[in-house]
TrEMBL record:
This is Cytochrome p450. InterPro entries: RNase_H-like_dom_plant, RNase_H-like_EbsB-rel, RNaseH-like_sf, RNaseH_domain, RNaseH_sf. It comes from the Eukaryota. One of its GO terms (molecular function) is nucleic acid binding. It comes from Trifolium pratense (Red clover).
Length: 134
C-alpha cells in the first residue's frame, strides 16, 4: 500500500522564524501521523521547503514506512530533485541531501502538488518546537 506525505513550509518574517509541517495519510486518505517544527532565523522559502522535505523523509524512514509519495507545492524543489545539476549554494546542498535520502529509500517518491491541495501540511506560525501527532 502507498502512503502519501504532504510537506509544506512557511516563512514568518515578522517573527524571524520558519515553520514546517508534514502529514501522512494512508491509501484511503485516513490520517496516520504528522509532525511540525520551527526554528529561528531567516532561511529563504525555497531552502525551508527543502529542509521540510528532508525532515519528513528522515522521520518517515525512521518510523519504518515504505512506499511513500511525498507531495510538496514547491516546484523549484521538485524540479531541482529531477535535474542533474550540481551547485555550491545552500539550496544545492539541501537538494543533494534529498537525492541521497531518496537513493537510500528507492520506494520513496517526490511529486508536485498544487498549493490548494497541500493545505493538510500547513503549519500555523504559532507552532512551537517540534511536535508529532499520531
Amino acid at each position: 500500500m502507498v502512503e502519501v506525505c504532504n510537506v509544506d513550509a512557511s516563512l514568518h518574517n515578522r517573527l524571524s522564524k520558519t515553520s514546517a509541517g508534514w502529514c501522512v495519510r494512508d491509501f484511503m486518505g485516513h490520517f496516520v501521523v504528522a509532525g511540525t517544527s520551527w526554528k529561528h532565523g531567516n532561511l529563504s522559502v525555497i531552502e525551508e521547503e527543502a529542509e521540510a522535505l528532508i525532515a519528513a523523509i528522515q522521520e518517515i524512514a525512521n518510523r519504518g514506512f515504505t512506499n511513500v509519495v511525498f507531495e510538496t507545492d514547491s516546484k523549484n524543489v521538485v524540479d531541482s530533485i529531477n535535474q542533474n545539476r550540481v551547485g555550491v549554494s545552500e539550496f544545492s546542498s539541501l537538494i543533494s541531501k534529498i537525492k541521497c535520502l531518496l537513493s537510500l529509500h528507492s520506494s520513496f517518491k517526490v511529486n508536485l502538488i498544487k498549493r490548494q491541495g497541500n493545505m493538510v501540511a500547513r503549519c500555523p506560525h504559532t507552532c512551537s518546537g517540534r511536535h508529532f501527532l499520531a
